[in-house]
Amino acid sequence: MSKAKENSEKRKSETQSPEKKFSEMKNPEKKETLEKKKTVEDKKGEEPKDNSYVRLPWFGLKKLGPYLAPYKRIMISMIVLGLFGSSLDIVVPQFQSYALDNFVEKGTLEGLGIFIAIYAAVILIQTIVNTISTYQTCQIEMYVGRDMKQSSFDHLQTLSFSYFNQNSVGYVHARVMSDTDRIGSWIAWGLMDGIWNLSYLIGVVLVMFWMNARLAAFLLFLVPVTVVLASYFQKKLVRFNRTIREINSRVTGNYNEGITGAKTIKSMVIEDKMQENFEAESENMRRTSVHMAHYQALFLAVMSFAASVALALVLWKGGVITAQGVMEIGTLSVFMSYALGMIEPIQWIIRALSSLVSVQVNIERFSRLMETGTEVADSPEVIERYGDVFHPKMENWEPLHGDVEFRDVSFHYPDGEEMIFEHFNLKVPQGTNVAIVGETGAGKSTLVNLLCRFFEPTEGQILIDGRDVRERSQLWLHRNLGYVIQTPHLFSGSIAENLRYAKQDATREEMQAAMKAVAADSIPERMEHGYDSEVGEGGDLLSTGEKQLISFARAVLADPRIFVLDEATSSIDTVTEKKIQDATELLLHGRTSFIIAHRLSTIRQADVILMVEGGKVIEKGTHEQLMQKKGAYYRLYSKQYSMRMPES
């Protein structure tokens, strides 16, 4: 029968930048402080330590019910086959006893042919049962893992923007991938091997007592010694395994940094420092792995010795009983086989108890993700009328015109108490081009995030076309928004595929027009496969400016009624920026737009400029009006361009 399958969870650690690491090399005190802080943070969600070794997660298993229910027939079949298979494993040694007692001792071959035929049939049935059981186990592992991944991914699509602000990509990836793999594997193989090992162990004990109670009692007296030894070594190996996973995360992190940060490393001439760090972690990995290998070797040797001693004692005691004529030689042989066969189930139970604790962590972390509620949710009435993310009712969507109003809006982030905006009011008529400027942290991005409904106002209302945005679905709003951020993101695939995320049925002519509108048509022209050229993972095959241009064209292709440009031209050279400015003036005509500007030259033609400071609009007007006031905007503009008087 197959052994219990154990999959070690691979943690993905968040890696720091080479610049940060270089700073820590120069400031060891700061590094020590950061490491202490990181140690505290890393304890969130890590596996329980050994003081929780015996805690069993039965309540956690209940949370997996919805993922197991669709496959209850397969699981029932696995249980039945497991019981039947373990029964066959108990029966097979009886053939050995029969052969010794009826053929060897009696010295006759009468009935041997029938015996061999029956024995071969039993072995064939046993093989078929094992094959089907293994196949069904793999089915459960794959199906449950797939369903959990799909369910968690779907749930992530419904979560608010704040969730992704508060949780790293590595954390979310581990929940969706590593935890689901571990849980699926543990359920499938734990069920099959658990049924087989437990039923085999119970069945063997009952059969041995039926065959000879005295020898069975003597054998069971030796079992606790094996259990104690196996438990001791298993605890040690669990600790080593946990330590190795943690070290492996650091080794992987250093390796990734060495590749992704190669340019920075070379420019800062810290190759030797990076090499020393990697070598130190690799040596630590080697040393810990060797120690674990020593314990594993010692464990196998000790268990083998203990098993040999137990078998020798059983053989001695059984020999005495056989010599007294109470038991036949064939029965003693079966006892020896059963005694040897009991070792593996006992070891499996001990391993299973230790793995239950670590799997409990996987279940709890996955459950925490699935139980995370969205902070920005449509009401049941809105969903009934407009649909949700996966089932939109577009036939009920009203056209969006573009009148925007912030009415007495106050806001603080979910994880903070300080108000970013207090009683903020602003009316933006349809077709108005609004520029938002201010120092870092003034609340510029927060303002457009509220407009996009990535966050809900703590107090007050945001109205579009005179209606509270909460009276319509988020999908309706986002379909009418063109949002271009400072850090562009492209998906793996071709240029055309990335553009079609904005409009799935876009024709080649429409894509070409959108690219031309933002002066990006030269990008596919210079590439070998044109619009079918691959952009790489995250657009890595393109420059930052090229990625920004394509993301800008993607927003244009969506033909939104409201444009939001969050420092969208900060990654583009001045020549291309001028082309986009010219195109933008045409594109934004008649559309409401909010532009957060890094370069103030890009917003001089805006209908209205908002100077934001401390969550309040301290100045409002056109470029010329604000420059004439010589207030905060004037100082910011002059500071950026190192000039005392405005250009006219």
Automatic annotation (TrEMBL):
The chain crosses the membrane at residues 74-92, 112-132, 186-209, 215-233, 295-315. GO terms for molecular function: ABC-type oligopeptide transporter activity; ATP binding; ATP hydrolysis activity. It comes from Hominifimenecus microfluidus. Residues 1-48 are annotated as: Disordered. It is a multi-pass membrane protein. Gene3D superfamilies: ABC transporter type 1, transmembrane domain (1.20.1560.10), P-loop containing nucleotide triphosphate hydrolases (3.40.50.300). It is found in: Cell membrane. Keywords: ATP-binding, Cell membrane, Membrane, Nucleotide-binding, Transmembrane, Transmembrane helix, Transport. CDD domains: ABC_6TM_exporter_like, ABCC_Glucan_exporter_like. Pfam families: ABC_membrane, ABC_tran. PROSITE patterns: ABC_TM1F, ABC_TRANSPORTER_2. Its main location: membrane. InterPro entries: AAA+_ATPase, ABC1_TM_dom, ABC1_TM_sf, ABC_transporter-like_ATP-bd, P-loop_NTPase, Type_1_exporter. SMART domains: AAA. It comes from the Bacteria. The keyword Nucleotide-binding applies. GO terms for cellular component: plasma membrane. PANTHER family: ATP-BINDING CASSETTE SUB-FAMILY B MEMBER 10, MITOCHONDRIAL (PTHR43394:SF1), ATP-DEPENDENT PERMEASE MDL1, MITOCHONDRIAL (PTHR43394). This is ABC transporter ATP-binding protein/permease. Residues 78-358 form the ABC transmembrane type-1 domain. Residues 404-639 form the ABC transporter domain.
